[in-house]
Design goal:
By secondary structure, the chain is an alpha/beta fold. The chain has helices at residues 16-33, 58-69, 90-99, 114-121, 137-151, 169-180, 209-213, 237-244, 248-251, 274-277, 285-319; strands spanning 47-52, 73-77, 104-109, 125-131, 158-162, 184-188, 204-206, 218-221, 259-261. The strands form two sheets. The protein has a five-stranded parallel sheet. A four-stranded parallel sheet has the order 2-1-3-4, with helices on both faces. Helix 5 crosses helix 11. The longest helix has 35 residues, at 285-319. It is globular, with a radius of gyration of 20 Å.
Length: 320
């Protein structure tokens, strides 16, 4: 199995064969998670710390469940009550954590690049669970697994990523991953929510929802991230839904077998109609949640293998 990474800081660092390796391993964990007894031993004896500087329900619980199912000792750090709130720097936090001898550190942070900085200061494997507007690699990987299971492939598919592109690390990671796997990506949304320079990213840009969705194989809706907005990016939620929210009329422009995705949490009636979100024939939103646990199990398994191999070589060098 080809997976060379020491950390998982972004999709950008992964080669196509590494992405395929991770998705293939995740398939085996989908099967394990559907068994009555859902436990493996890939992380036996290892310690996993989840360090979330931003609130999270799906991602944190998914990583916690993934670690426990693979046998890790899992600790969730309550950052709101931690020394960070008392003025401790990120570097000092990293040094404190490093002294605890963790093996896997899962980090979510509001600032782009913060997770990379932590990875430089610790001796364990680090997984980026989302940093600012930068990346959210495991979300893109679970989306890829969901698409591959539904469509049988990733290459030569047309994927429309719609909504608040500018503030979305999910959009960025998906764009990078799908590009590596030879899919055709469209970014669809209002000009105010489209990042500058997006046209240079090797994708198609549409402001008109109808044009963007036409003949798409996959429709991926994004949440309006109001907490990251400073100013008037949209006229109103009602107008936004009318023009860029996914309803049956707009979805009819995509291919008849197009699937609908959303990373969550959803704002029903803002970016997506509730009926569409709950349509078991089109929506794979709940599948994304299921795939999230399997992908995070696979990611931690592969990183743990590399960590053990690295430590093994270091120990052998010590005794030479």
């Amino acid at each position: 199995m080809t997976f060379r990474a020491r950390h998982l800081l972004g999709v950008e660092q992964l080669a196509p064969d590494e992405i395929t390796t991770l998705l293939d391993l995740a398939e085996s964990y989908v099967a394990l998670n559907r068994r009555t007894v859902k436990h493996g031993d890939a992380l036996d004896g290892l310690t996993q710390i989840n360090l979330f500087f931003e609130n999270s329900t799906r991602t944190q619980s998914s990583f916690e469940l993934a670690g426990k199912r693979l046998g890790a000792d899992v600790m969730n750090m309550a950052v709101a009550q931690s020394s960070v709130k008392k003025g401790e720097t990120l570097i000092d936090t990293a040094l404190t954590l490093n002294a605890m001898q963790p093996d896997l550190l899962v980090v979510r942070h509001p600032n782009s690049g913060a997770v990379n900085l932590l990875a430089e200061k610790v001796n364990c494997a680090v997984i980026n669970a989302g940093d600012g507007r930068h990346e959210h690699p495991t979300q893109a990987l679970l989306d890829a697994l969901t698409i591959r299971r539904a469509k049988g492939r990733l290459h030569r598919l047309t994927v429309a990523i719609c909504g608040d592109i500018a503030h979305s690390r999910v959009a960025r990671s998906n764009l990078i991953l799908l590009g590596k796997m030879e899919a055709r990506v469209r970014l669809v949304g209002p000009a105010t929510l489209m990042p500058s320079g997006a046209a240079e990213w090797g994708c198609e840009i549409y402001e008109d929802m109808a044009e963007g969705l036409r003949d798409a194989d996959v429709v991926m809706m994004l949440r309006l991230q109001k907490e990251r907005m400073d100013g008037g990016f949209i006229p109103s939620e009602r107008e936004y839904y009318h023009r860029w929210g996914l309803d049956a009329e707009k979805l009819a422009l995509a291919k008849p077998d197009a699937i609908v995705m959303h990373p969550g949490p959803m704002n029903r009636g803002v970016e997506i109609d509730g009926t569409i979100a709950d349509d078991i024939n089109r929506s794979v939103i709940q599948d994304q949640v299921e795939m999230g646990v399997a992908v995070r199990m696979a990611a931690m398994d592969l990183l743990a293998r590399n960590l053990r191999a690295e430590r093994g070589k270091a120990a052998a060098g010590t005794y030479v």
